[in-house]
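Human: If only I could read backbone structure tokens as easily as an amino acid sequence. Underneath my words sits a plain record pairing an amino acid chain with its backbone structure tokens. Take your time, and here it is.
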Amino acid sequence: MSELHDECGVIGIFTADPSVDIVEETYLSLYALQHRGSKGAGIAVNNNGAVTYYKDHGMIPEALPEKELQRLGSGQIALGHVKYASGDLAVDHEDLAPLVMRYIKGQLALCINGALTNYHELRDELNKGAAIFQSNGDTEIIAYLIARARINAASLEEAVMTGVRKLRGAYAIALTAADKLIGVRDPMGIRPLCLGRIGSSFVIASESCVFDSMGGEFIRDIDPGEMVVIDKNGIESYTVEKADRTALCVFEYVYFSRPDSVVDGVSVNVARQEAGRLLARQHPVDADIVCGVPDCGMESAIGYSMESGIPFATGLIKNKYIGRAFNNRKRNSEYLMRIKLNALKNNVNGKRVIVIDDSILKGKTGRHIVGLFRQAGAKEVHMRIASPPFRCPCCLTSDYTDKESLIASSMSVEEMCAYMGADSLGFLSQESLKETAKGCRLGLCDACFTGNYPLDVSDTSREDKYSKKIED
């Protein structure tokens, strides 16, 4: 089980049908993106330009209680957001989304999945213009840029394009103002964003599983550098900015996305099973069963089993009913991991076990998992990882920026194997990684494995004067 976490998930819904309960539709749709963030959630409703909203910490049912949803009223447009943030950073209420602000033309609501690489530059520029910030995130920066551009822009669309062209980094944006719903994807397509329909409603979302889970239909992926505008007249598309290359984060297939999503032409489930098949060819081993680490190692374990002919079996049980209160408990980390995962003794006792996981970061979780299998009576434990060694920090799509804590940056495969106490350890080769996403319509970013970043990330640390640390 990886310790990596994606930053957020976004949803925007537009309906021209007054009988649609847009709050309920947005609330239920958010559940399809819960895996992208569990530190907070929020909904904003636009009723003819008047925006009401509610957001709070925790998973969706904790953050959005029924009594608060009822107070949101009705409307034609809604935004939904799930939030993730690094465990050592305080998540202030102001950092939750959607962000709602008043500006020269009324109210604007906005949420983002991603991170800006020119955050400091833009914030310093706005500070010099006497901007007053209430949060530490990218969302407020983007909202300020759009609001400032709207002063001279002929339309909301023009203001959004003017503001967004100042951004550098990875982002998928959903926003609403006046009578419009707008979605924007970064020029390289690093963050996913797609368009669909649920009943009579048009929807933009981080993943296509949103449409499937609500009985809707996927229309298409939003192109890199594209802005889509949805209103009562239909959908309009604009090109905001083109990049020389595209670079979808390959970790969407490895870990971030749900297996029932299709990201830029490739099924996540198929990609993960192919990773398992390739692992079986590259790192075969005699064993009795193949087990996956829930959740993201399961599809790769099935692929490994199919390719190797070794039976697939459930080896680990995951407690899925853990909310914010549990995550905030100050307990021994090994104790907390044991509550989250437990080995199924009847399946592994006396067996030679192959364990498939999506990735390894610090190695502590991997060591814990090996220990669980040992304690459950496994005769041998062979770790197989459905991605290459994670050696480089990433600030574009994840919260992981500390290279020193990445085990693969300082240890060989043999040393990592010994650290985790496994009988053997094998990673998917770098060459095979992109084969797993064969058919993707975009280029792929694999910087977390290679260090080849698609853009300048030299000034992206948030460990600065704007960030707040949690004090024990």
Notes: The two ends are 26 Å apart (CA to CA). Residues 1-6, 462-472 have pLDDT under 50 and may be disordered. Residues 268-282 form the longest helix (15 residues).
